[in-house]
Each structure stands twice: as C-alpha cells, then as structure tokens.
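Internal QA ticket QA-208
Title: Verify multi-chain structure generation after dependency bump
Assignee: T.L.

Test input:
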Amino acid sequence: MTQSARTVAFATAFAVIYPILYVACAYWNLALFTYHPALGVFGIGANAPRGGPAMYWYGWMTTALIGAAMLSVGWAVFAGGSVRIPTLVASLVPIAAMVVAVGLMAHYFLH
Amino acid sequence: MLMTTLLIVHGLIAVALLGAITHQAAAVLWPVSGKAQGLVRRFRAVSSDTYVGTVVALYLVTMALGAFIYTHYTISARIALIQLQFWKPYGMFEIKEHFAAIGLGILPLYWILWRAPSLGVRARAVVTTVLATIVWWNFLVGHIINNIRGFGS
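Actual output:
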C-alpha cells in the first residue's frame, strides 16, 4: 500500500515535533488547562493547586498535540512535497525525548 | 467500585496490548527464515503487519482508561506515596506518565511505517521497539504502584 506524500510528511513531522513540544511543556509547565481532581473542576492555563493536587499532564499533552498538529499540517502542506524528513531521524527523536523525560525525573531516584 | 473495575479493565486491555506489541517487536527484530518450528520461533513468526491496527486501537483505549483513572490515583495513591516518601516508585510513575504521552505522538509514524515498509525498514524496527519499551515500562510500573498502594487498600 502506498501513502500520499503529504500523509507521510505529516506523520514524520508529527513524530519529530510532538515529543519536543511535550517535553518543553512538561519542563516549563505550559499546560493549556489544569484539572483539580479534588474539586472536579478545570482551570484555564497552569493554575496553582486548589483543594488538593493539581493535574497538568492533560494540559501538557493538549498543548503539545495542538501545536504539533498545526505545525505538522503546515509542514505537510508547504514543505512536505519538496523536503523530506528521514523516517529514521523521526523515529529517533522520541527516544531523545524519553531520555530527557527520565532526566527530568532523576531527582526522585537520588533521595 | 467504579475505579477498581476500570483499573482491572485497564490492566486486561494492557495485557492484550503487551502481547500484540511484543509479538510484533520480536518478529521485526528477530525475523524467522524458513519454517517456524518450536515455541520461540513460532512466537517470532507471526504476521506482524496484521497487528498494526490492533496495537493502535489498544494503545488509545488503554491510555484513555489510564488517563481517566489517573484522577483517582492523584488524590489517593499518589498522596500516600508522598506521605510514605516512596520517591523511587513515585518517580517511576512520573516517567510512565511521560512515556505514555510520548508514545501517543509516535502512533501516526508507526502506522505509516507499517503500511508502507519501503519508507524505512530500520525506522519501522526502531519505532516498534520504542513503542514496545513504553508499553512494557508502563505495564510493569502500573503493577508495582498497584502492589504498593492499590485501590481498596
């Protein structure tokens, strides 16, 4: 089965952009929204905890998904036909993001 | 009761995902040539491309259920882990959270690479291995956390 060039361009760009955006969102707490599970309410942006712990994970993913989707569509439409991201490079970026994510959590293992 | 039921369903679907992605990773990393005889060779000799849609669907369902249960974990088990100063399991779960999110982002590339292998056989092997690593890590950490402070404890 063959895939259209734009679909391939979108998938490769998304695999590169999304992990980078997600790690950046987690590091700088760029959550589109915050969920306060003790109260069962959402807040726009990264809020301080209310009535218990605050959950930013959903907000980080949403920020990264929207950002990566927009950039990847843009890439596929405007550059995907002429400039191709090697699939091997695209497959290695998530590994780098995983290493960074582990590094961000390293302090929990140094207690 | 609802959360306990959902946790069990989450775990059962995760078992199916673990089996599918492990079969596929074994087949792509250690392909069988010739007739498959013996348990290990038959395990590696599966038709890997038939697993793609199943893996994507199971990953999305498992993650959606996990994301829903996560709210309950945050206001119950997570607080207990902090109070008990179980920092290593706590950190392992934080990594699980990040790995699950990163895995979500590679599903489109995983899908494309299995539909069109000519785009990159090595990339396909790498992406499948990364996804298998994420699924294994998340499965094991989920069990460890549940054993420390599961629902109903």
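Spot checks passed. Residues 2-149 of chain B form one domain.
Status: verified.
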